[in-house]
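Here is one chain, start to finish.
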Amino acid sequence: MMLNNVCVAHRGWSGQAPENTLAAIKMAANHPDIAMLEIDVQLSRDGIPVIIHDYTLERTTNGAGKVGDFTLKELKELDAGSWFSTAAAGEAIPTLEEVLQETRGKVKLNLEIKRGGDWYPGIEKKVADLVRQYAMESDVIMTSFNHETIHTLSKVAPSIKTGLIIYGYPALIEELLAYTGASILSMGYQYITDNLVQSCLNHGVDLIAWTIDQPEDMQQIARMGERIAICTNYPERWFSAREI
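Its structure:
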């Protein structure tokens, strides 16, 4: 028996290459069994969408400080690979445009929009405009922990699917989905239950379960329904786990 759930490579193939770099993105985009990549989008000081997870630079680059305090040129001068391995030294922080150019026609993208408080005003429209420029509306979904960002996207980019990212199990999921216009629920896998899955699927809401790195957890979630995407740092583990 084969489990057929979609595989989402978390921050690219981040178990094999430094997260959110073109190395990790290319590796995942060129694998036939990976249907989607999840990557994180922020803005440089000069308003360019860039791909990096943390709001600060220390963990994944040789820089220090907040991402949004640096211009694209300054961000591009940083090393985003040495922390992972010596072989990855020199990997740069990519722009969203570079990622769209690399992945177009190969794989779908889950763009997580990072929006903390008042940071990155206008990021929703900037990202949506780039996606439209590359005619990738049908190949992209946009998700965020900031549910106001998803509400905004429903206004500025109604043709692009959106999803709420949730860690935990809030009481008002249906109301949140209705307010934001989202049709996808991206949840910490520990909080996904059979009842939630059935309720979502009955209402036309798809699920992404993150971040699942252990094969037995992958199997447990996948058995709840084929429309639950498995988001993992280690796609190769899913390739083995799905054959049961």
